[in-house]
Design a protein that fits this description.
heterodimer, A: 153 residues, mainly alpha, two-stranded antiparallel sheet, 5 helices, globular, B: 404 residues
């Protein structure tokens, strides 16, 4: 029980810090404080206010909530705060994935056809990804650990 | 033979013991999440996230998938060429009214009832309205909207409204027609008038937003900022100038629940049906009327008459006068017309803000009329003052900043 609590707490804090840093990086790149960032499968282009400034702020706030909630997972409100942070990252990641799906279905302006090919559609999901998508599996682990924590409590 | 008081209470106890079950309620994670989303410190960031998701889904579905992905291609590559080839006599009046410009290569610029009218109402606005109502319904039925109303209550009270005014405000971003109807959630005449006026002036509909995002994406943020600031300033002023009550309300905040599919489908259908029945015919009628006004030279006459005011007071070039005049019936298309005129970014922002605050579209106008002609006249008079004052103020800000 104590081990589970510690793992959940540490993982929530680590993922929270990562989300906070990446969210702030989104805003920073959009504001022109740093050039576009591309590390492995992760990419921050910062070319659009809505996605990078607003979306980045949401990811950063999500990270902050996870971090703030990780301090005392024995308390229900703290756990809920951490889960809320994970949900905020999911919202942004979900919107990115939904955007990929919506952008991948039509064939594109130049093509005569209405629908994209299966290969073209799948190709739209290739990396690089925005930070929220990279964070998505880790936030799912956080939520799973927190829910287990609830059952154990 | 009647029962005594004691016997009655015994009977009540017996009934209650059979139908009422009691137990200890335990606060769960769902309850804690519900509380967090209503407290300002945690609720406002969540509201920021929810509104982000709301607009992101709206843009991806209505913009990327339906309108840009399929409708533009269908209307421009198939519908317009077929109509232009099949409709007889391109020089005739009926061709001008229904098909529009014979040289147009897209439905956006053709300006006929069957080209721009169909494209805007069905190709642009219908998908926007559909996804907007779907997300609204999900927020409503999940229990988030009452929480948003609680969060917005403090701000909205400063302009004489209460938390539930967030419903018509958000609805207005999809279409002002159902938003005007939704003002009935407000208690007093004063509140309904305030909300209707602010909706007509400062809340751009989905069609306008969609076209703004398509033709002037780099300036939309500034336009929205001017509209939000105007909403706050004029809401504050109108609240102090208009007599009447601003009663408090008690909002019931239910626990979060998964929306029921049948309920969502029913609400979605009713709202979309309302748009198709009430707004679409008026968009077509509006385009027809403006085309007739163009033919009769009324638009040109008004343009020449009002050009000095527009140029000197609002600081926009003379070429923008015709679209600005026409905007009172076709705001969305007027934005498209503006995008083809050479202007500085500041002039473009001013012109688009003017179009947004200029006049409600014809469909909204009719719905407002249904709510009461006195209110409509008062709203239009207020609107005229606001447009003049705010348009001039934006120009003045531009002069002070050295941009205009």
């Amino acid at each position: 029980m104590k081990t589970s609590y510690t793992i959940a707490s540490i993982v929530a804090a680590l993922v929270g810090v990562a989300a906070l840093i990446l969210g702030l990086a989104d805003v920073l790149v959009w504001a022109g404080g740093a050039g576009p960032i591309s590390i492995g499968i992760l990419e921050i282009t910062g070319d659009d206010f809505f996605r990078w400034a607003w979306g980045g702020l949401v990811v950063a706030l999500g990270g902050f909530f996870m971090l703030a909630g990780a301090r005392g997972l024995g308390d229900l409100n703290q756990r809920a705060t951490a889960v809320l942070g994970a949900i905020m990252v999911w919202l942004v990641a979900g919107c990115d994935i939904f955007g990929m799906i919506c952008g991948g279905i039509p064939a594109g302006e130049e093509s005569e056809a209405f629908f994209n090919s299966v290969g073209g559609f799948i190709g739209g999901f290739a990396p690089p990804y925005a930070p929220a998508i990279v964070l998505l599996p880790f936030t799912i682990i956080v939520a799973w650990l927190l829910l287990n924590e609830r059952q154990g409590a | 033979m009647g029962l005594t008081a004691d016997e009655r209470w015994d009977l009540v106890d017996q009934v209650a013991s059979k139908v009422v079950s009691t137990g200890v309620s335990r606060r769960g994670l769902g309850d804690a999440l519900g509380d967090l989303t209503v407290k300002p410190l945690t609720g406002l960031p969540v509201a920021l996230a929810v509104l982000y998701a709301f607009w992101s889904i709206f843009c991806s579905f209505a913009g990327d998938l339906v309108t840009d992905g399929f409708m533009v291609k269908f209307f421009d590559n198939h519908w317009l060429p077929w109509l232009q080839s099949a409709w007889p006599d391109p020089t005739s009046i009926h061709y001008f009214l229904f098909v529009g410009d014979p040289l147009a290569d897209n439905c956006f610029e053709a300006f006929g009832v069957l080209t721009s009218g169909l494209f805007v109402s069905l190709g642009v606005v219908l998908p926007a309205v559909f996804i907007f109502y779907l997300t609204m319904t999900l927020l409503e039925d999940s229990g988030y909207l009452p929480r948003l109303a609680v969060l917005a209550d403090t701000f909205l009270h400063k302009i004489g409204l209460h938390g539930y005014a967030i419903v018509p405000t958000i609805l207005g971003l999809g279409c002002n027609v159902p938003a005007v109807t939704a003002t009935r959630v407000l208690e007093t005449k004063k509140q309904r008038f305030l909300m209707m006026t602010l909706l007509a002036i400062f809340v751009p509909c989905g069609a306008q937003l969609g076209i703004m995002l398509a033709v002037i994406p780099e300036t939309v943020g500034w336009v929205i900022l001017y509209l939000v600031v105007g909403f706050a300033i004029f809401g504050f002023l109108l609240d102090r100038l208009i007599p009447g009550d601003n009663p408090e309300i008690l909002i019931d905040v239910p626990p979060y629940r998964w929306p029921i599919r049948e309920n969502v489908a029913k609400k979605l259908w009713n709202r979309t049906k309302g748009y198709l029945k009430e707004a679409v015919p008026f968009v077509w009628l509006g385009i027809l009327i403006v085309n007739v006004l163009y033919l009769a030279g009324v638009i040109q006459g008004l343009s020449e008459l009002l050009a000095p005011i527009f140029i000197s007071w609002f600081g926009v070039p003379s070429e923008t006068v015709a679209p600005l005049i026409a905007a009172f019936l076709r705001k969305d298309l007027a934005v498209a017309q503006l995008s083809t005129i050479a202007m500085t970014p500041y002039q473009m922002i001013t012109a688009v803000v003017l179009i947004s605050i200029y006049f409600p579209c014809v469909a909204t106008f009719v719905v407002m009329l249904r709510e009461g002609w006195k209110q409509l006249l008062a709203a239009v008079a207020t609107l005229a003052v606001v447009v003049f004052a705010y348009g001039g103020a934006i120009h003045a800000i531009g002069i002070l900043l050295g941009l205009a």
